[in-house]
Specification:
Chain lengths: 176, 274
């Protein structure tokens, strides 16, 4: 079924259904609660504006997640440009260095914080595939549809991503 | 830290596929054999498994309650944003109420609790033995009351609960709790709807409807077909649905809510990975 522009109720239901997943992917991608909120909002706005271009022969969630992924990528590029402009020696240069967490930072466990920091050190392509696989439990094919690469590439990025994460966590003494 | 350099590429792929649950029985056996004779690879695999497990266990972050309202406001203007905000406020209020009740039971773990726990277990075991000997026929009946003769006491330990699916849509709301047993799937569905809706459950061909019971008086009609089951409902009702899972593979259950031919919701309830 193709959602129709102007149908508030139907679009509200779409927001209800996907906002949590998109917000979580964005949060894991950019490591910042407020930025994740901005990305989620602009992803839904873009989706609404481009409803006419949605092809119902593809899964709706793949199309929506693809928009959200592009929004995250745009956001990261924008932030990198800003960081370069305002960088001072001693500042964190890595994206997401501020790491603003959920409203109550005490709620973020040590493991969560450690993983989040390790994820932030991965390149975008690896980070994205690891997040889509482990946080949304998507199959290789579904991930391939979203990021528009063959399953083989998804597999290779996922395996490398996991290995890099392992090396970071082992290096920090977190993995025994 | 283990080095992947000494490990054959083929086995690194098998390790990752094992983590993703994609290996055949033969591939799993081949990997296990390889790990047994290669301690370096075994260590590498253990570390990889730890990372994947940690990633799977990271809890979801709760999005801000005002998120939907701000999206709706940005797209449809102030009125839609206000309506969404009102809905979010109601939900947040409900969550706050339940959180405050949960807070009563939230305690910080201290070593002294181990003694209290051990004492409780001992007393509980003593009472259980005493109770069992005095009234031998009592325990099975109690279990029957608890599980409605759906599962035996042995099977109860093998139940696999799934993250509940909760939905609040305009004029329709509900909650679906699913538990997987060895050969059955139990579902408790709370539904409230201002108008007539269809709730469609999709499942694999090995699954079939065994029974549906409405726990309160309400208007409903159930129709089971090949690989699906359709419930027509209006008003407020709680249903207990029992599905027979012939293969016992814990296949996912798809849930669709349809009103007047319009799909309002599509969700899948699947058992969590170990």
């Amino acid at each position: 079924m193709k959602p129709v522009k102007g149908d508030k109720e139907a679009f509200g239901a779409i927001v209800d259904q996907y906002q949590r997943a998109i917000f979580n992917v964005a949060y894991r991608m950019v490591n910042d609660y407020e930025d994740a909120m901005d990305i989620t909002q602009s992803a839904f706005i873009k989706a609404y504006e481009n409803l006419d271009s949605y092809d119902p022969s593809h899964k709706f969630f793949s199309w929506l997640y693809r928009i959200a992924v592009n929004e995250s990528l745009n956001h990261i590029s924008k932030r990198k440009r800003q960081t370069r402009l305002t960088y001072e020696p001693g500042d964190s240069c890595e994206y997401g260095g501020q790491g603003r967490s959920p409203a109550d930072p005490a709620e973020q466990s040590e493991t969560d914080a450690m993983l989040q920091s390790a994820l932030a050190q991965l390149k975008f392509d690896y980070r994205l595939v690891v997040i889509l696989r482990h946080f949304l439990s998507l199959s290789y094919r579904e991930i391939g549809d979203i990021i528009d690469v063959p399953e083989k590439t998804v597999k290779s990025r996922l395996f490398t991503g996991r290995q890099l994460l392992k090396e970071i966590l082992v290096g920090q003494g977190y993995v025994e | 830290m283990s080095n992947s350099g000494a490990i054959e590429e083929k086995y690194i792929e098998l390790m990752n596929r094992e983590i993703d649950g994609l290996n055949s029985r033969e591939e799993s056996a081949e990997l296990q054999k390889y790990l047994r004779r290669n301690p370096e690879a075994e260590r590498y695999y253990r570390e990889l498994l730890f990372v994947a497990g940690a990633l799977d266990r990271v809890p979801e972050v709760e999005p801000p309650v005002e998120l939907k309202a701000s999206i709706m406001r940005a797209i449809f203007g102030e009125e839609a944003g206000a309506a969404a905000a009102a809905g979010a406020k109601t939900r947040a209020g409900r969550e706050r109420r339940s959180a405050s009740i949960l807070d009563l039971f939230r305690v910080r773990w201290e070593p002294k609790f181990a003694y209290v726990l051990a004492a409780c277990v001992a007393v509980g075991f003593f009472l259980f033995v005493l109770f069992w000997r005095v009234v031998p026929g009592r325990a099975p009946r109690d279990l029957e009351a608890l599980y409605g003769s759906i599962v035996s006491s042995q099977e109860a330990g093998q139940l696999l609960a799934v993250q509940p699916v909760e939905f609040v849509l305009p004029g329709v709301g509900g909650e679906l709790h699913v538990r997987y047993e060895m050969k059955r799937i139990l579902a408790a569905l709370d539904l409230h709807s201002d108008s007539r809706i269809q709730v469609v459950f999709d499942y694999s061909k090995d699954v079939s409807l065994e029974s549906i019971t409405a726990l309160n008086k309400c208007e409903y009609n159930a129709k089971a077909g090949d690989g699906k089951f359709e419930l027509t409902h209006s008003g407020d009702c709680r249903y207990v649905i029992v599905l027979r899972d012939g293969s016992g593979t814990h296949s996912p259950i798809g849930l669709k809510v349809v009103r007047g031919g319009t799909l309002l919701l599509q969700e899948t309830s699947r058992p969590a990975r170990d």
